[in-house]
């Protein structure tokens, strides 16, 4: 009896130690983040997303553009973390079908089902199911994946659900009977499902899921999204006192309907949602809003949120009732999961006996992997606590055994949680639509001259109105413009991924009838240069408006430079590329010659010099070197123009021998920088802020790119009145001699000698 007790005790401890807590994450191919940049040691399972279902033969296929990503995924991930397991995720909806839907609105829900027609077409016929299963397993094995994930399975009619049960049984059967080499394990099989197994009268076949899947990733987020809800909401609320739309409710429902807790993996979103408040003083959870903010669908990555908050020096609040972090900046409200929310959720999952957590999606973590590290540490803390409990228990029991040397009861408490993986997908960020030639011709009155807004380097730009009343601008490429086609392609490729209120949206493209047209949102107030350099229109721009414009451009550039591991250099940032919407909010336009850089790739060399006179930094003019601070320089020039209303093409100073930058620098040095300001700005209450602006601008146009601040620093210096602004060095292109006596050629000379000026018109 004594021996048996000790054995039971030992095996008990052993089991507790070998529990496999699952730390899983999705990596979406549509993200520009390189797989090699992910710290895979923070995870036990990495899910590569997404393969699709072919609607004609029901086999799995990988889009050609994702082929390399998927084929190299496992090798790259395991080179850093040899014990990591990789899964190939199959998207059950139509390719690129929308991810957002209303979990409370069943008519919308039935709309969603239509995008699952291929999936249901597959599960409703045995031969289709067989094609799917065979091709999925082959795709996984071919690319070295160790498992398959089916995301994201949707609720449907009971007939469909019954077929789903057979389908799951067949899939499991195929996995179990797969001929394998002696050292390979059977494929792991997981499923992404809704946060709750029940909706209206529909329910998942819970028993079939339990029998066949290793675990389920619950989509415990996107409960409230800013593209839909007219109030601020905790989109991934762990609890909600007033509604069932919360994670705790969903998890309990899964367990109540028969899925064991140890088959459930909680979802951790690394994104939040931004709203525009109706009243910026009312920013509690549930406050009224005017819809979304910041991005096209209101969703914002944690990485971006963090940079955004830092640039304003704002710390988010935490609401423990819902378990959500949130913040308010001006009239923008963002709800998301920061460190506190992640900790609470991981500790909840541990206490509830769930299998682990799943991150959607890892590239959205910040550069230091703070959320992933927090989640891992919190899980370890909870594990240590549980082990401590086991040890205390076992010591007590051992003491009892020794003292009494009689019968001893060891209560078997199930604290064993075996680990597995996780869940979710978001729509590929493609905000572009194909338009027919007829649509565009109708919208622009057959490209009538009345609708012509201007003539750009590569063709005319027209104003138009679509049938639904939406105003557009159409850039129509002149036939045979080779350069134009290249830039148009570049613009399309880039803008598909860019979504920010301060970047001009490309709505779509029309390539019918040998036409090449880009369709943009229409900006009624034209471009900034029209206001800045016009003696009458300039009066519209008071100091408040100019500050609003400066802040908007800053936010747009911050987004381009900080929102992901890549940096986007716009390369031709100038007043005529800043377009103004009906509220005079600025949007950066024209990404035709923009370039994408890896974050740490600080410089690359080029032969061909493109750009616009006055805005190009010296390292590029002289050496063809791109630096990360390229646009910071252009921004500095732009800033000087916005506050002075002066052009770069004139000379200034008493002797009319100084370029714009030197002029600003001289005045600043003499402590008379107010003389630089646009004389139309007589707002004496803002003197301090104006001086600050000039100084920041001068920092941006310094000769050495290493000396220029980052956009994050610029944003912070402009915002925080308290922050110290360093003294700038002499600006680039100064005719004045440097201390060593080296003569640096002047701005005019350089420009006329080696620069090709592109004056590409943008839609107004
Ligand atoms: C789907 O299958 C059909 C028939 O085999 C094939 O012609 C087609 O190219 C496939 N589509 C994709 C996107 O793979
Ligand atoms: C539900 O969704 C449908 C279809 O999208 C929409 O027409 C309807 O207004 C929505 N109902 C509510 C109450 O939001
Ligand atoms: C969380 O927000 C709700 C709604 O605004 C509020 O009623 C509640 O008191 C807040 N809880 C905490 C702990 O701040
Ligand atoms: C545009 O041109 C087509 C054919 O040339 C013509 O049928 C149509 O009426 C025109 N539409 C407008 C709005 O002028
Ligand atoms: C900007 O455009 C709107 C809408 O067309 C117009 O009402 C407004 O007066 C314009 N603002 C300026 C400063 O021109
Ligand atoms: C700056 O001050 C110096 C000395 O007072 C003067 O010679 C110079 O003209 C001033 N420069 C400007 C741009 O006002």
UniProtKB/TrEMBL annotation:
Residues 1-18 form the signal peptide. Its EC number is 2.7.11.1. The keyword Transferase applies. This is Serine/threonine protein kinase. GO terms for molecular function: ATP binding; chitin binding; protein serine/threonine kinase activity. It comes from the Eukaryota. It comes from Handroanthus impetiginosus. One of its GO terms (biological process) is carbohydrate metabolic process. Keywords: ATP-binding, Kinase, Nucleotide-binding, Serine/threonine-protein kinase, Signal, Transferase. The lineage of its organism: Eukaryota, Viridiplantae, Streptophyta, Embryophyta, Tracheophyta.
């Amino acid at each position: 009896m004594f021996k048996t007790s000790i054995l039971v005790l030992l095996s008990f401890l052993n089991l507790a130690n070998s529990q496999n807590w699952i730390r899983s994450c999705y990596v979406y191919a549509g993200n520009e983040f390189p797989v090699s940049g992910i710290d895979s040691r923070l995870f036990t399972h990495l899910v590569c997303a997404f393969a699709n279902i072919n609607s004609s033969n029901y086999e799995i296929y990988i889009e050609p553009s994702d082929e390399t990503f998927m084929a190299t995924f496992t090798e790259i991930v395991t080179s850093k973390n040899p014990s990591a397991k990789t899964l190939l995720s199959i998207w059950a909806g139509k390719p690129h079908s929308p991810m957002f839907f209303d979990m409370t609105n069943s008519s919308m829900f039935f709309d969603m089902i239509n995008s699952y027609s291929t999936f249901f077409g597959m599960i409703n016929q045995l031969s289709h199911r067989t094609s799917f299963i065979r091709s999925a397993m082959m795709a996984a094995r071919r690319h070295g994946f160790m498992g398959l994930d089916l995301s994201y399975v949707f609720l449907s009619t009971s007939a469909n659900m019954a077929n789903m049960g057979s389908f799951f049984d067949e899939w499991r059967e195929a996995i179990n009977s797969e001929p394998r080499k002696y050292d390979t394990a059977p494929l792991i099989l997981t499923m992404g499902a809704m946060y709750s197994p029940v909706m209206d009268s529909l329910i998942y076949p819970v028993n079939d899921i339990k029998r066949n899947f290793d675990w389920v990733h619950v989509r415990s987020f996107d409960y409230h999204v800013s593209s839909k809800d007219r109030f601020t909401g905790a989109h991934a609320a762990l609890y909600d006192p007033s509604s069932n739309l919360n994670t705790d409710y969903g998890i309990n429902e899964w367990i109540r309907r028969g899925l064991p807790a140890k088959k459930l993996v909680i979802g951790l979103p690394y994104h939040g949602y931004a709203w525009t408040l109706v009243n910026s003083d009312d920013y509690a959870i549930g406050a009224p809003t005017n819809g979304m903010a910041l991005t096209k669908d209101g969703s914002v990555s944690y990485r971006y949120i963090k940079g955004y908050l830092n640039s304003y020096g704002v710390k988010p609040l935490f609401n423990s009732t819902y378990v959500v972090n949130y913040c308010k900046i001006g009239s923008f409200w963002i709800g998301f999961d920061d460190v506190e929310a992640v900790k609470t959720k991981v500790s909840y999952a541990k206490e509830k006996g769930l299998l682990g957590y799943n991150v959607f999606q890892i590239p959205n973590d910040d550069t230091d992997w703070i959320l992933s590290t927090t989640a891992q540490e919190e899980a370890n803390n909870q594990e240590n606590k549980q082990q401590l409990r086991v040890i205390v228990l076992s010591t007590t029991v051992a003491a009892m055994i020794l003292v009494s040397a009689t019968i001893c009861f060891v209560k078997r408490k199930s604290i064993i949680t075996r680990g597995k993986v996780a869940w979710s997908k978001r729509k590929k960020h493609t905000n572009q639509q194909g338009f027919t030639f007829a649509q565009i011709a109708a919208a622009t009155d057959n490209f009538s001259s009345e609708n012509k807004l201007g003539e750009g380097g590569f063709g005319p730009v027209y104003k138009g109105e679509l049938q639904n009343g939406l105003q557009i601008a159409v850039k129509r490429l002149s036939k045979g413009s080779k350069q134009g086609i290249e830039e148009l392609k570049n613009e399309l490729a880039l803008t598909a991924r860019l979504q920010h209120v301060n970047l001009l949206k490309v709505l779509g493209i029309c390539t019918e009838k040998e036409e090449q047209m880009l369709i943009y949102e229409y900006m009624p107030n034209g471009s900034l240069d029209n206001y800045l350099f016009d003696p009458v229109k300039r009066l519209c721009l008071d100091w408040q408006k100019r500050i609003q414009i400066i802040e908007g451009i800053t936010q747009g550039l911050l987004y381009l430079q900080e929102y992901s591991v890549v940096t986007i250099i716009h390369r031709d940032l100038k007043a005529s590329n800043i377009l103004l919407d009906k509220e005079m909010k600025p949007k950066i336009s024209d990404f035709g010659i923009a370039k994408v850089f890896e974050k740490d790739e600080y410089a690359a060399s080029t032969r061909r010099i493109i750009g616009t006179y006055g805005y190009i930094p010296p390292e590029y003019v002289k050496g063809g070197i791109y630096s990360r601070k390229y646009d910071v320089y252009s921004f500095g020039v732009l800033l000087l123009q916005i506050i002075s209303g002066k052009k770069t093409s004139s000379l200034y100073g008493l002797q009319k021998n100084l370029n714009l930058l030197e002029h600003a620098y001289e005045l600043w040095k003499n402590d008379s920088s107010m003389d630089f300001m646009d004389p139309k700005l007589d707002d004496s209450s803002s003197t301090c802020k104006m001086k600050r602006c000039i100084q920041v601008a001068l920092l941006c146009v310094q000769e050495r790119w290493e000396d220029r601040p980052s956009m994050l620093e610029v944003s912070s210096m402009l915002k925080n009145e308290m922050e110290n602004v360093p003294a700038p060095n002499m600006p680039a292109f100064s005719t004045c001699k440097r201390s060593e006596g080296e003569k640096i050629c002047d701005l005019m000379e350089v420009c006329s000698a080696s620069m090709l000026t592109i004056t590409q018109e943008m839609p107004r």
